[in-house]
Specification:
This protein is mainly beta. The protein contains one helix and eleven strands; from the N terminus they run βββββββββαββ. The strands form two sheets. Strands 2, 4, 5, 6, 9, 10 and 11 form a seven-stranded mixed beta sheet that branches. Strands 1-3-8-7 form a four-stranded antiparallel beta sheet, with no helix packed on it.
C-alpha cells in the first residue's frame, strides 16, 4: 500500500560512505515503521536499522556507530547514512514500511512484519 523507491547505492572502497534514500508515497501524518534491510547472496535478509513514529530508532549490532537512520519529513524520505563501510556491508539494501500504532515490533526488524518494500539498491564495498 505504501509505495517505496530506494536509491543511493553504489560501489565504494572500505572506509567510504554512502547515503541511501527511500522515498515513500504516504503522507507525512501517517504513523509508520520504516526499516532498512539487506541481503547478501546466499544469506537471509537481515534488519539493518529501523525508525518508528514514536521516535525510536534501532540498529543492528553490526552497524551501530557507523550507520544513522533519519527522516526528512518535509520531503517524506527515509535516509540511511552509512559511514566507515566495510566489505561485509556489501548487500542489496531494501527499505520497507508498515503502518505503526505502537508496540516494540518495529525494532525487531523482522521482514515478515513489513508489507511494503522498495525495489532494492545495491551496495558494494571493496577492500
Amino acid at each position: 500500500q505504501v509505495q517505496l523507491v530506494a536509491s543511493g547505492g553504489g560501489s565504494v572502497q572500505a572506509g567510504g560512505s554512502l547515503r541511501l534514500s527511500c522515498s515513500r508515497s504516504s503522507d507525512t501524518n501517517t504513523r509508520i515503521c520504516m526499516a532498512w534491510f539487506r541481503q547478501a547472496p546466499g544469506n537471509e535478509r537481515e534488519g539493518v536499522a529501523s525508525f518508528d513514529s514514536d521516535g525510536t530508532s534501532t540498529y543492528a549490532d553490526s552497524v551501530k556507530g557507523r550507520f544513522t537512520i533519519s527522516k526528512d519529513n518535509g520531503k517524506n524520505i527515509l535516509y540511511l547514512q552509512m559511514d566507515s563501510l566495510k566489505p561485509e556491508d556489501t548487500a542489496m539494501y531494501f527499505c520497507a514500511a508498515e503502518l505503526y500504532y505502537g508496540g516494540n515490533w518495529c525494532s525487531f526488524m523482522k521482514p515478515a512484519g513489513f508489507a511494503s518494500w522498495g525495489q532494492g539498491t545495491q551496495v558494494t564495498v571493496s577492500s
